[in-house]
Amino acid sequence: MTWEPVIGLEIHIHLKTRTKMFCRCEVAYSEPENTRTCPVCLAHPGSLPVPNAKAVEWTIKLGLALGCRIAERAVFHRKNYFYPDNPKGYQISQYDEPLCVDGRLVVPGPDGEPEVGIVRAHLEEDAAKNVHTGSAQGRIAGASATLVDFNRAGTPLVEIVTRPDLRSADDARRFLQLLRQTVVELGISDAEMEKGSLRFDVNVSIRPQGSDELRTRTELKNLNSFAFAAKAIQREVERQTGIYEAGGEVEQETLHFEPGTESAPPLRSKEEAQDYRYFPEPDLVPLQPPAELVERVRAELPELPGARIMRLAAELDPDTATDLVTSGRDALFERVPGDRRAVANVLMNQFAAAGVDAAAVDPEEFGKLIEARSRIPRERLIEALAASGTPGFLADDYLGDGLMADTSELEPIVDRILEANSGQVEAYRGGKEGLLGFFVGQVMRETQGKADPKVVNELLREKLST
Amino acid sequence: MIDTLRLTAEEAMGLIERGEASAAELHSAYLDAIRERDGELHAYLRTVDEADGAGVPIAFKDVISSRGVETTAGSKILEGYVPVFDSTVATRCREAGLPLIGKTNMDEFAMGSSTENSAYGPTRNPWDPGRVPGGSSGGSAAAVAAGLAPWALGTDTGGSVKQPASLCGIVGLRPTYGTVSRYGIVAFASSLDQVGPMTKTVRDNALLYRIIAGRDPCDTTTVEPPQPVELPEREDLKGIRVGVPKELNEAEGIEPGVKEAADRTIELCRTLGAEVGETTLPRSVEYGLACYYLVAPAEASSNLSRYDGVRYGLRVEGENGVRSMYERTRDAGFGDEPKRRIMLGAYALSAGYYEAYYGQAQKVRTVIAQEHAAAFRSFDVLVSPTSPTVAFRLGEKAENPLAMYLSDVLTIPSNMAGLPGLSIPCGLSEGLPVGFQLIGPQFSENTLFHVGHALERAIGFDVVPGRLQ
Ligand SMILES: [Zn+2]
Q1: Per DSSP, what are the bridge partners of residue A256?
Q2: CB-CB contact of B168 with B433 (8 Å)
C-alpha cells in the first residue's frame, strides 16, 4: 500500500511592534531580566489591557497576504490555565471569532502548486520566560528553582493554523520558508527561530493514498529549523508507516524535540485533554476593524513572495525560484542581465557563500562578473563577489585588464617553476598529463592569482612539449 | 468645631472656600472621629495621616488602588500588597485635590452583602452595631453614615454600593456601566464592576460622580457620558414619568416596613408632580439573580487566578513543585466565599457546561436589557425598595449563602442590564433606614440626581443615626 502523509502546521510569530500587545512596555529580547515590565504585564490587581493598534493592523496585513477574510467583529477570549509564566492565570487570545479566517497560500514545488488552506490567523500575547536554575542545561528536571523573566510577557504573537493540506515533508518546509519570507517582507516580524520570534508545531498523520480519512495524528514540538523539521516529519511518516504495516495503531501523542540537538530522540508525552475554560475577555470590547482600514492595508500590500516564486519558476524551476525568493536575492536576480540559470546559480552558490547583502549590489557590474565567470580564475570570481556589495565596485578591476596576460612577463615565472620541479616535468613528459593542473596552480600561486589562466595554459603546453 | 456627623461634602467645600477650615483641619477632624468611633464600627482597614491635597478628604473602598497605600480587597491573599500605581479614580480624586483619608473594609474581593466576609473582621452598622452595614462596600457606607468621611467611593457589582447605602441610610450611586474607569480596581466581575460615589446627599453624589466619570484610555470599556453632570436644583417632579415595576415591588421577602416606606415615597413622587404608573419586568426579576450567579462567579474565577503566590501577596511554600505552592497559597489566602465562587465559576465555564450556563446567562442578560429598554419607552425612572430588608443582625445570614444572595435580588436585574441606579434613604422601619432605588436608562444619571434630590428634600431624612445624635 502507498501511504500519503497528512500534515498541518501551527505557527507562532512575534510581531516586531515597538511595544507589547496590551501595555506600552518596550518589546525587548536581550535586555536584563524584568526590566521591561509594568503593572499590566505583571498582572497587578486592577490593571487592564489596552490592545496595540499597530499589532491589530499588522495582523490584518498578514491575513490579507494569506488571502484571509478579515472579520468584521473579532473577539478576544481568555484562555485560563495556571503556570508561573502566565501572570494573569489566563492568556488573552482569540477563540471562535478570530481576526483573520479562511485563507490560502500557494506553495510552488516540483510537483505543482499545492494550495494550503489557512484556517485562521489570530492575535494573542506571549507568555513570560521560565528559567530553571540548578539543573543541567536549564531543564526543569532536577532544577532547584524556577525564575521568571517577564520581559517577554505580553509580546504580540500571531498564531497561524493551516488545514492539514500538506502532503510531504518538503512541502511543509517550503510552506514554512514562504510564510517566513512573507512576514519578513511585510515588515511585521523578524521571524527568527534562534530569537524565538518564530516557532511552530507540526501535526502528522498518514493515510492510504487516495483515501480522505483523517487518522490519529502526532504532534511534533520544539523543532528548531525548517530543515530539521523536514527530517523529523519524514522520520515520523516512516515510523507511522511502519506501525500500520505491522498491523498496529498510531497513538495520539506529542513528540518534544530537544532544542539544539537533532540527534536526540524526542521525548514522548500523552496530551492530557486540558480544559482552558475559554470565555470572552470582559475587559476588552470586540475589535471591529473599519472597512477603510482593511482596504487601505490591502492597497498597500507589496507583490508577495508567493507570486514572485511563481513568476520565476516559469523561467527557472520551483526550487531555485523558492530559494531565490526566500533568500531575498530575487530582486537582484531580476535586475542582473545575462543567462538566467547562470545568474541564479552564482547568486545561490558563490554569492550566497560570500554573505553579501544583495540590496547593495549594482546589477550591471554583477552582470559583467557573470558574463566573465568562465574566463577568470575561480579565486578571482570569489574575490570579486565578496567585494560586489561595496560602494563604487567595478567588475573591470577583477576582469581582463587586471590580469597578467603578457607572455614576456609570464615566461620567466613559468621557466622558474619548471626548473624547480624537474621531477614532475619528467613525469609529465612520461605521459602523466594530469600534472598540467599542478603547474597551472604553481603559476597562479606565484602570481597571487593574477595570471590569465588561458595564457598560462598555452605557455605551459608549449614549454612542456619541447 | 467641625461636626463631621452632619457636615456634607458640599458644606465642607464651602468651609474651605471661605477659609473657615483648611484641608488639613478637615482631615484631622475626620481622623479624630475615626479614633472616637471606629473602634466599635471597624469601617476602616487603615487610615492616611497626612492630607495630600487642598480639598475635602475622601475614603476609598479597599479594592481601589492608590499608589503607596496597602490595598487588600479584604483578603489575606493580598495582605501587605502595596500598589505601585494609582487607579484612574484615585488619579481623578487627586487631581481634584481630594486627600485620601483611608481605605475602608469590605467583603473579601467584594463578594458578599454584609461585610462579614472580610478577612479582617466585620464592619458594624452605625445605626445599630449589632447589625451589618450591608456589603460589599459596607466600610464606605458605615464611614459616611457615622461621620468618619464626608464621602467615599465604593464599587458595585450586584448591588455593593446601593445595598449598603440603603442599610446605612446614605445615598449611593451605581453609575452606567462604562462611565467610570475600572483601571486600578481589584477586579471581581469585570462586565459588572463599577465604582460609585457614597455620600450623605444627592448633590454630594453628583459632585463626586462629576469628578470620577469619563472615558479613560486605560479602560477600553469606558465612554464619555453624553451630557455633563448637572448639580440638581429642582425640587419638583413635574414631567417625570415614574414606573413601578410590579415584580420589584412585590417580590417575596420584602419586609412590610420596607414596603410601606417605599410605597409612601411613590406617593410622594405623585405629590411632587410626577406621573406614576405600574410596569412589569417579569423575566428580569425571575432570572436576574440566577443569571448573575453564573456570570459574576465565572468572571471572578478567572480574575482571581492571578493570586498565585508568584509575584506579590501571600505565598505559602509548597512541598515539591509549583502546583503544591499554588494550592497552599490559595487555600490559605482565600476565604470561604471566594473559594465558593471560584468553584461555581470554573464549573460554569468548563467544557460541556459553558453553553448551558455562561453562554445561556449572557443570552438572558440581553433579554433583561431589552425588557428594561421596553419599560423606559414609557417611563423616565423605575422605582422600588433597594433592599428587601433593613440591616440584619451580624451572623444572621452568614451560614446561609443563599439567603445572603437574596439581599441583592432587587438591585441585580438593572445591574445585569448595565443601567445606573441611585439609592436614597426614604425613611425608617424598626428604627433602621430603608433605601429607595431609582433606576434609569443608560447615561440618565442627571435624571436620577434630579429625582433623588427632589425626593430627598421632600422626605427630609435625617442622615445622622439616632444613637449618635
Ligand atoms: Zn507592560
Answers
A1: A221, A267
A2: yes
The C-alpha cell at B114 is: 454584609
Closest CA to A163 of A155, A171, A154: A171
Instruction: Identify the CA nearest to B154 among candidates B130, B131, B133, B172.
Output: B172
Is the minimum CB–CB distance between A283 and chain B shorter than 8 Å? yes
Longest dimension (CA), chain B: 71
Residues whose CB is less than 8 angstroms from the CB of residue A246 and which lie 6 or more positions away in sequence, other chains included: none
Burial B191-207 (b: 16+ CB within 10 A, else e): bbbbbbbbbbbbbbbbb
Domain locations along chain A: 3-297, 327-402, 407-465
Q: How confident is the model at residue A260 (pLDDT cuts 50, 70, 90)?
A: low
- ipTM of predicted assembly, 2 dp: 0.96
CATH class of B9-280+368-468: alpha beta
Give the span between the Cα atoms of A222 and A232, in whole angstroms.
11
Residue A90 in contact with partner chain B when CB distance is under 8 A: yes
Cα B361 to the center of its chain, rounded Å? 23
Question: Residue A120: CA atoms inside 13 Å, Cβ hemisphere, count?
Answer: 13
Looking at the complex, report in whole angstroms how far the Cα of residue A89 sits from the nearest Cα belonging to chain B.
Answer: 5
Annotated catalytic residue within B75, B87, B113, B160: B160
- Cα–Cα distance for residue pair B114/B132, rounded to 1 Å: 5
The letter for the amino acid at A433 is E
Measure the CA–CA gap between B19 and B36, rounded to whole angstroms: 26
CB atoms near residue A204 (< 10 Å): 26
Given a cut of 70, the residues of chain B with pLDDT beneath it are none
Looking at domain A407-465, which of 3.40.50.720, 1.10.10.60, 1.10.10.410, 3.40.50.300 is its CATH number?
1.10.10.410
Phi first, then psi: give them for residue A303, nearest 5 degrees.
-65, 130
Pair type for strands A115-125 and B432-439: unpaired
pTM, full prediction: 0.90
Contact A44, B84 (CB under 8 A): yes
Q: Distance between CA atoms of B424 and A83, rounded to whole angstroms?
A: 46
| Chain A residues touching B77 at Cβ < 8 A | none
B305-326 per-position pLDDT tens digit: 999 999 999 999 998 889 999 9
Q: Which residues of B touch A135 (CB under 8 A)?
A: none
User: Which of A296, A299, A330, A301 is closest to A313 using CA atoms?
Assistant: A330
B353 inside 8 A of chain A by CB? no
Residue A78 contacts B, CB cutoff 8 Å: yes
Is pLDDT at A401 greater than 60 in this prediction?
no
Residue A136, pLDDT above cutoff 80: no
pLDDT at residue number A441: 85
Going from the Cα of A15 to the center of ligand 1, the distance in angstroms, rounded, reads 16
End-to-end, the C-alpha distance of chain B in Å comes to 16
**In the 8-state DSSP scheme, what is residue A36?**
S
Amino acid at A42: L
B201 close to B10: Cβ distance less than 8 angstroms: yes
- Domain borders along chain B are 9-280+368-468, 283-360
- Active site residue: B61, B162, B259, B397, which one? B61
pLDDT tens readout for residues A297-341: 999 999 999 999 999 988 898 889 989 998 989 999 999 998 999
Q: Which residues pair with A130 in a beta bridge?
A: A148
Q: Cα(first)–Cα(last) distance of chain A, in Å?
A: 68
The number of residues making up chain B comes to: 469
Confidence (pLDDT) at A393? 85
Give yes or no: B61 in active site: yes
